[in-house]
Write a structure and sequence with these properties.
174 residues; alpha+beta; Phosphatase 2c, domain 1; two-stranded antiparallel sheet
Length: 174
């Protein structure tokens, strides 16, 4: 008996899809994100409460089409959530040090997932509700806008003069 087998190239299995979350309710502030147009590329946001007084939020734009970069996005979200929680959940956490470390760890995770350097502008911040301060890093992302009693201001790029850090967190009292 002769049988004929037909082989077709399978489409590659898709990596775990990153999951956008609903923004947590804040005591005396509001947070929001808006997308212009249909999301076909690597734009992504996430936000969650890491402690009773701290909310971590981030925006990431991974270069390329979503089908090709969703593995990178999923890895970045995993590091963002796990490392962000580890670093910022303790009440005594130093937010500036934690955000610097988070930036470095996300950068490393993106490079590992991409197999090398990959354009991925990012903005992430930790809002401390008790102090009314946002500690953030902006590594090449469009500046975030903050509206407070004094008007609207940009949270622009943050730069370090230290060879160890690619970004140095800034802060703004709200």
């Amino acid at each position: 008996m002769i049988s004929l087998l037909t082989f077709r190239k399978k489409k590659p299995a898709l990596a775990i899809e990153p999951v956008p979350s609903a923004f947590p309710v804040l005591r005396e502030a509001e947070i929001a994100a808006a997308f212009a147009g249909q999301r076909t590329a690597g734009d992504f946001y996430d936000s969650f409460r890491v402690s009773p007084s701290r909310v971590l939020f981030g925006l990431l734009d991974v270069a390329g089409r979503r089908a090709q970069n969703q593995g990178i996005l999923a890895k970045a979200q995993k590091v963002f959530r796990e490392v962000g929680s580890q670093l910022l959940a303790p009440e005594e956490a130093n937010e500036t040090d934690a955000m610097t470390e988070l930036c470095l760890r996300m950068n490393r995770a993106i490079m590992e997932a991409a197999g090398g350097v990959h354009s991925s502008p990012a903005f992430a911040g930790c809002y401390n509700e008790d102090l009314g301060i946002v500690c953030y890093f902006n590594s090449g992302h469009t500046p975030a806008l903050v509206r407070d009693g004094e008007g609207v201001s940009e949270l622009g790029a943050t730069v370090s003069t230290s060879a160890r850090n690619s970004a140095w967190p800034g802060w703004k009292r709200l």
